[in-house]
Amino acid sequence: MIEIAARQSQLEQAVSKLTGLTLTILIFGALVAIAFALSERTGERVQRILKYVIFLAPALLFLFIGLVAPAFRTLYLSFRDARGNESVGWENYQWAFTQPEILDVLRNTGVWMIVAPIASTGFGLLIAVLTDRMRRPGLVKSLIFMPMAISFVGAGIIWKFVYQFEPNERAPEIGLLSQVAEWFGFVPTNWLLVNPLNTFLLIVVFVWIQTGFAMVVLSAAIKAIPDEILEASMLDGASGWKRFSRVTVPMIRGTIIVVLSTITIGALKVFDIIRTMTGGNFKTSVIANEMYNQSFRALNYGTGSALAIILFLGVLPLVAYNVVNLRRERSER
Amino acid sequence: MARKLRKRDVEVVKTHLSSPWASFTAIVLATIWTIPTFGLFVTSFRPSTGINSSGWWTVFTNPEFTFTNYTRVLFEGRGATPPLSQYFLNTFAIVIPSTIIPITIAIFAAYAIAWFDFKGRNFLFFTIFALQVIPLQMSLIPLLQLFSGGLHIGSFTVIPSFGITGTFIPIWLAHTMFGLPLAIFLLHNFIAQLPRELIEAARVDGADHFKLFRQIILPLSVPAIASFAIFQFLWTWNDLLVALTFGGGKREIAPLMVRLAEMTGTRGGDWELLTAGAFVSILVPVAVFFALQRYFVRGLLAGSVKG
Fold it and tell me: How many domains does one find in chain B?
């Protein structure tokens, strides 16, 4: 009886959600269509201004409300108390750089920033080079690339299962890592509890996902190296390794830096993996996770904002570098 | 002297150089990369007693499969917790508008920045490019305050709160705002490369910007739109942080990822449900990804630093 009622209400909810969804899309589509139909009917002088209102204003409004204004407000809140009522000076920042737990968080973030990009780019480059001369690289590349479509949460579950540990000594291991460790004569342990190993085990998950990205971008760069250069180095009798280190890598240096910086930004902001696999316990937390905890668990907007600003300062040099790069590229064109 | 090698010759030399060891190493790496996902896939079809008493690799000698995990996790709720099929629906309800709305707004803006002549055009372009990489953590608290309380200066209400907390609307808006910079950047790069003669010819023929956009720009931009659509689709489907923050912890609007993250935390040991649930959540993005891989790769190569 209860079950039938529950099913009924679930069905009703589903129908109402789908109706809401369809209506929203229809209304949005209709608004755009009406705006266009009306605009096309106006005279040239009106259109001179109207075109900015229709084409540019919505995006600018969203960007301002969603990104620009909040960034300044976060900066302001980082100097206020938990509820944003009173000024506390630099207290939140002092807290971040003196509290032992937060120092752990900052150190972990540093490890992520260094290890994750280098490992992902290294594997990506390796696979790009290995598959470059393969006759049918399609399947290999797709398999390496597939994790990119998998969410961090899904990946977290996949790897948590790999790291699963069976505390009962007589029961067989069901986690692959524990089993492999046993096969090689090691005693498995509860991997995710061991610090600092656990941070590296979490980084493995991230690298598993990002290698595909690095591989695709680097592989395209390698393909773009002119044949003449390859040809010249072959005629000079350069060995495989020499060709790789003296020709391939220098030729794609720019792309390698772009890939490294993109992955570094991703590593700085990693949240889902930590949340799903350890919840930030056992000394594995990072800034993005701690920012969420402070803001929405401890409900301290002051310390939460300060952590967001620290995260931003970490990304800033990379943003600046990318902007300078883009400017150069555009002026070269 | 060395004669100029033709492209074909280079191909021949390349194949000649391809060492079996390189191919072998690549295949080994690809296998290692796939094993974890394969383990999850196999486990999701095993009965729970089997999962907890033996490793999934034993199925090759001792096969035993069932669909029960899927029917249980998808259709059986527990107390106040609805079954996963409800969350699946919520994910769709979040993803579809969160993909359509930013693309629409972005393509308008991309066209304006590429083809309107106005002061500060370059500055605007670089600002948007820089906004791409600003961590969305910078926006979470202020946006949440705005959605729940509106904006007031003193006792004067600038933006009312509209009472949208607890609905899908804050999540749609947040995804739109966070997706815009990359969307504008990618679409701009594409639209700016359209031949100038084409645009000018249409202008001479008397087409205004609205007609021009509708009849020429939009149809030509379909590949670029497709590539960004896949990005945004994957990003919103796989997102946890935005849904967690702007969903306000309400079960009625929580997507798959929020539920899965919750399940791993509280029911870490129920591998039969977790693996089946995770596989359900992976299936759609992976299918989309394989079907449209070409567009995805093109988008990645066009510039990919997402904030």
Answer: 1
Closest chain A C-alpha to B69 CA, distance in angstroms: 16
CATH code (residue B230) = 1.10.3720.10
Boundaries of domain holding B258:
92-267+288-301
Q: What part of A 37-76 touches B (C-beta under 8 Å)?
A: 39-40, 44, 47, 51-52, 54-56, 58-60, 62-63, 65-71, 73-74
Provide CB contacts within 8 A for A6, sequence distance 6+.
B77
Specify whether the CB–CB gap between B150 and B159 falls below 8 A: yes
- Same-domain pairing of A80 and A140: no
CA distance B105 to chain A (A): 6
Alpha-carbon span B210 to A48, nearest angstrom: 11
Q: pLDDT tens-digit profile of B18-37?
A: 678 889 999 999 999 999 99
User: CA-CA distance, B59 to B42, in Å (whole number)?
Assistant: 8
Domain extent, residue A21, equals 2-85
The answer to whether the Cβ–Cβ distance between A308 and B39 falls below 8 Å is no
Show which of A24, A55, A85 is a domain's final residue: A85
Residue B128, SS3? helix
Backbone phi and psi for residue A178, each to the nearest 5 degrees, phi listed first: -60, -40
Stretch 124-183 of chain A: residues touching chain B, C-beta under 8 Å: 126-127, 129-131, 133-135, 137, 139-140, 142-154, 156-162, 164, 171-176, 179
Residue showing tokens 């000698």: B61
Nearest-Cα residue of chain A relative to residue B42: A158
ipTM above 0.85, yes or no: yes
What are the tokens at A28? 């949005």
Distance from CA of A93 to the nearest CA of B (A): 16
Residue B279: inside a domain: no
> Please, which residues 210-239 of chain A have a Cβ atom closer than 8 Å to chain B?
211, 213, 216-217, 220, 227, 230-231, 234-235
Which residues of chain A have a CB within 8 Å of the CB of B168? 20
Residue of A nearest to B8 (CA): A227
Confidence label for B306 from pLDDT (cuts 50, 70 and 90): very low
Residue A91 DSSP label: H
- Which of these, B179, B192, B187, B183, lies nearest to B224 by C-alpha position? B187
Scanning A299-328 for CB atoms below 8 A from B yields 301, 304-305, 307-309, 311-312, 315, 318-319, 322-323, 326-327
Strand partners, A87: A80
Cβ-contact B103, B182 below 8 angstroms: no
| Whether A239 and A166 share a structural domain | yes
A14 and A112, same structural domain?
no
Residues A210-236 pLDDT 10s: 999 999 999 999 988 888 887 888 888
d(CA A159, CA A155): 6
Decide if A172 and B53 are in contact by the 8 Å CB cutoff: yes
Helix ranges restricted to H, A100-248 = 100-132, 138-145, 152-162, 176-183, 197-223, 227-235, 240-242
C-beta separation of B30 from A140 below 8 A: yes
